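Quarterly update from the structural biology core.
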Amino acid sequence: MVPPNKIVGKLSFRVNSYLALGMGILIIGFSAIFIRQANAPGTITVFYRMAIGSLVMTLPFVLHLRTQKRRLPLQGVLIAIFGGACLAVDLALWSTGIVMSGAASPTLMANTAPLWVGLGALLLFREHQSIQFWIGLSVTLVGVIVVMGKDLLHSINFGVGSSLGLLAAIFYGAYLLVCQHGRNNLSTLTYFWLTTFSAAITLLILNIILQRPFTGYSMSTYLNFLLQGAVVQVFGWISINYAQGHLPASIVAPTLLAQPILTALFAWLLLGEQFTMWHVVGGAVVISGIYTVHRSRHIVPSFLFDSQIVLDRTEFTDQSDQRF
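Predicted structure, tokenized:
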């Protein structure tokens, strides 16, 4: 017979995992709102997010390196750097789309990344995809056409913003595919810090090329940057990591699909963004298609998350292709 204190302990542990998942989804659902309200170019906003995020995690990363008994493999480091560059392009496109057309549609489009992961795995690694994947792909594309078509009819800016979100999803899918191989030789914390730092440097170069101003913003904008780096990039990441390490992927992956729904809700409540019935129907079709793709791929490769910075466990076992 299991002692009552152990039952209570396991129940409490499971409750904490659900709370972490809920908190993480709320945070990532709000990330597009931060970008929209920053009153700064999207590429500048995400640069500060990644720069502050990497700065906050530098000390845990250095301490983690000191515990390692071997040098970092050069191949793994180079893959992580390339992955960070893909992530930077993804964030630049997504954030620009948000600034142009609002928070909801670009975020919905950006969450189609699992489709591009599946297609990339098929084309690059000859990974077989089931009929369920192709059904999910078709359903998602129908929803994408409905949403983007409505946005284009509304205005060119709205259509371009949604298109940038869709393009961002392709680069995020590339990031996840790169991640699949980069995590073979690197711990999660090492890979996370290297990709975050690489993304920050890439965004720094991109903003210099685009001649975006790094200074001259209001105090509220700099506070926005700080919250994005410390809360969204770090705390949101840790919360989702914790949940993915202790809840089944069959629960975590579909639940993460609440992100675009929450973003749309926040955009409606806080930003006054308006949605037609076509947006609602198209969005529902997109999310159902992504869910079908998740189910078809059993989205749980264990390549991204272990818990060096969260708990005393060596490795997380679940991962999702979902954006956050």
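The CA atoms of residues 9 and 15 lie 10 Å apart.
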